[in-house]
TrEMBL record, chain A:
One of its GO terms (molecular function) is iron ion binding. SMART domains: Ald_Xan_dh_C. This is Oxidoreductase. It comes from Reyranella soli. Residues 29-144 form the Aldehyde oxidase/xanthine dehydrogenase a/b hammerhead domain.
Automatic annotation (TrEMBL), chain B:
It comes from Reyranella soli. Keywords: 2Fe-2S, Iron, Iron-sulfur, Metal-binding, Oxidoreductase. PANTHER family: OXIDOREDUCTASE WITH IRON-SULFUR SUBUNIT, XANTHINE DEHYDROGENASE IRON-SULFUR-BINDING SUBUNIT XDHC-RELATED. This is Ferredoxin. Residues 4-80 form the 2Fe-2S ferredoxin-type domain. Pfam families: Fer2, Fer2_2. The keyword Hydrolase does not apply. GO terms for molecular function: 2 iron, 2 sulfur cluster binding; metal ion binding; oxidoreductase activity.
Amino acid sequence: MSEHRPNTEGKYKWIGTRPERPDGADKVTGRARFGADFSLPGQLIGKVLRSPHAHAVIKSIDTSKALALNGVKAVITAQDFPDQPNLIVPTGEMQVNMRDITRNIMAREKALYEGHPVAAVAAVSEAIAKQALSLIKVDYEVLPHVIDVAEAMKPDAPILHDHLLTEGANPPASKPSNIAKRIEFKKGDAKAGFAQAQVVIEKDYTTQAVHQGYIEPHATLASAAEDGQIQVWSTTQGHFQVRGFCARLLGLETSQIRVTPTEIGGGFGGKTVVYLEPLAMRLSQKSGKPVKMTMAREDVFRASGPAPGGNVKVKIGAMRDGRIVAAECIVEMQAGAFPGSPVGPACMCSFACYDIDNVYIEGFDVVSNRPKVAAYRAPGAPISAWAVESTLDILAQELDMDPIDLRLKNAAKEGTKTAYGVTFNTIGMVETLEAIRDSEHYKSPVKPGYGRGVAAGFWFNIGADSSAASHVGEDGSVTVISGNPDIGGSRASLALMAAEELGVDYNKVRPIIADTASIGFNFVTGGSRVTFATGLAVVNSVRDMIRELKVRAAKIWKIDPEAVIWEGGMAKPAGNQVGTFEPLSLADLAAQAGRTGGPINGHAQLNVTGAGPGFGVHCVDLKVDEDTGCVHVGRYTAAQDVGTAIHPSYVEGQLQGGAVQGIGWALNEEYIYNAKGKLDNPGFLDYRMPVASDLPKIETILVEVPNPQHPYGVRGVGEVPIIPPIAAVGNAVARATGVRMVDLPMSPPRLSEALDAARPMKMAAE
Amino acid sequence: MAKIHVNTTINGAPTEFLCDANQTLLDVLRDNLGLTGSKEGCGSGDCGACSVMVNGRLVCSCLVLAPEAQGMKIETIEGMAEGDKLHPLQKKFVEMAALQCGICTPGFLIASKALLEKYPNPTEDEVRYWLAGNLCRCTGYDKIVTAVLDVAAEMRESAR
Ligand code: FES
Ligand code: FES
């Protein structure tokens, strides 16, 4: 059963309805063109040579034989890219250093992980390109490697970067290590809080790297002209970022690069960085021909952004009545081969669901010989939440308290100050907990053999830069132009807001996603910002257009523009006192536009702040096969404060998709490295993501607590749903079996081992 | 290496192509014939994004060698709508938001159509197991399964 509890009943005509998405027909007929579906006449195929070693000095690269092969048109290595300064730039919710990006797209001094690009070729066919790769001779000096975070933090660990001194170390670092950064958040006095606590629970947890798992591999097509202009087609969450990064990496001006976003087959944060684009562009420049590149699935796993794994220590102190008086969380997180894990958000989110007086949080950003991590849905937060929410469950058991009641007792509310310094505005943590507490699911008895787990999650959501334009066509129909790739139905939500604002039929509004040359700058599709921030830009551009429409009507009526109102898709006189005029529709005004001042357009450009944070609470019933350790998920409900659900079906879809990714993270997904530092499971057969038969229905409860800082109350909804599931599953496993899992994933071999280990104790206890 | 000449029927139209011995049917559909509706998610038979029908059987076209298509009847997503009329599954997927990014959608539609042709009255479990060869990372499968069950019910209704 899914519920939608609108707070806006009857207030809107379009918002909250579920019309068909504008790109629906294209996407069910195969007409929609994704990254690998673009081709140009005369194009070459580009291929990447990747390091077979986890850690090695690149002593020399001999490309002469490859270049001599018939059909090979260009070969590139790191020498084809200028070195970059130590310069931090934002990508989605994460930050990257240009110095590192250029080394990640093409290894320079050293190969730092298996799969790290070391050279690339462009040839007339895929077969020739592959043959050319085999002719490139790389002289490696293999170095000792380190994969595990705890190992990488040891003083005698192999060092990845000789220049890396721990930022924020106390005392300051004097020699290089793999710890790139140490961060700390404090509120109150944790020590005193723990001294006061009547119950203290302390536990260590580990998680493994997981992949975003988008079904569409990275793909790009680049065409460089002799005059220095380059066109690029790319499957990306941020074509403006592709333009910006590539301009820097290739030493061009942004105006020389025009990036068209293709339809995007999933990203979840993983398509906010560049991998193939700069290589294809450089190969195209060198060969004078268009170059198309796609990653094989294996490359996607080995060399594109996994989400990190990490180690988390959590300590929670409470009074016997359930009030939490102190909390501590220490997170050590994989960054991959270059600094920049999402340890910051992991720390900030760890206790953000709760109002706790005394908090201490510490985080470490740690490099090791793995691919550089990328954002994945609420980056970092699922890792700390898994540890914190599991510990809370232990506390609830210890206090013999209902886990929802325990959370309600400590829930963050309006006015709660977080450990990272922000004080919450209107939020819906309490309402979301209550929604689960009052749900039919939670009230139903747990079936014999099953365990029920609940957990909560928090995400900030972001705003940032957006541009939008609205145009009235000659016949009065409307085009709304924005610049964020539509990854999960955002065209529909933007069109709904535009239709609501304009007072016209949803089907009269056509949303278009423009390339980098056709609309102003837009930050990435990420951080759950599009419906919120780009939505606001669209609303403002429509308002700008309405202002112009009123001016035109005033001109026709020869009255003051102030005396015109816009209502139900028409310009009307503000009242009888200004005169009696027949209302003018969009079509009427468009027809006369030539005589009233020309085309009628609206524009908006904003740096959007005021993103409303989101809270989610999930509840799961599951049972564990005692022999195999296999988990059967029987029932699942996800509740979330979604602000206002603009298109409820796609909001539900975000909750359902995120929940299932979280279930996969909890139960099966992990990067498995062998002793040589090579990934042993770079394919969907061995990296097992959930399939339809693994799952029940994912029930949803959309709790609407509008964001006061958005005209329609929008909050981002895409990130939160991946945060609660891992701990919810772990808590249910603990309650079903009596065994508390602390290491992810809770896969059949791990779980059956844990059950076996617990058996003699259980038997002895009986 | 000499190219191989292959005669097939694709979406009802006699179609011939030249291919290399080691090209897959998916490669030929996408690269030689411009039918890019079938997608490559893995190239190893694990994701179902490349699902097509070959002589009435649901297969992963990334696992079929193109020369094997000689004399075969192939159906792809491009042939699913009739003229401007979407197949009921296509309509329902859009209506019920059974897709987010849409990369998996062609594969799910082909697989779902194959299911309903064989078992017009599937249970939810049967739909889930039939579609277990198709990966979707966006939707959590919920709306896909519901859409297929809905279409099955509607098709049974209209067949009465
Ligand atoms: S591409 Fe054929 S099964 Fe994935
Ligand atoms: S809708 Fe994106 S993979 Fe299915």
